[in-house]
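Kindly go through the following sequence and its backbone structure tokens. Advise at your convenience whether the structure tokens fit the sequence:

___
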Amino acid sequence: MPEAFSTRPPPGGLVARLATLLAMAGGITLLATATFSTVSVLSRWLLGWPIPGDFELIAIGSGLGAFGFLAFGTLARSNILVDTLTAWLPVRVNQWIDAFWSLVWAVVLVVLAERMVQGAVETARSGTTTMVLGLSTWWAVGIGAFCIGVTALAAFRWVFLLARGRG
């Protein structure tokens, strides 16, 4: 991996603070989900009492937890970088290549966020709920859309930094 990519800290600012908060919330959500899953399994195994809707809550919590990490991962550039074919190129050329692919990632994220916002609106409009507990699900889709939107901002931040040779 080129030296320029391995030693630089992620950018700071509002997007970084928001990405950090989302990652912390995602971590807390995953810990709560794991704890709930453990309690649910122990309850079934030791007491024979299932927790109604446990799989619904675990699915929602796991999904939201994972969404929480996307922006921080993008900002920290902790994604997989395959530079086998470009390692011999000058650092500046690699930065332009990375800026291009960060732009592609950002555009895909904007499209996904917009579609998820539409999904949240439609889910609220139709009154979609979970099967067992009857929980409305629009809010989970909306939170996911927000997380994807923040991830897009993080990707755009890298586009500008890399294009200016500061990545």
Remarks:
- The helical segments are 3-6, 14-47, 54-75, 91-126, 138-163.
- Residues 13-163 form one domain.
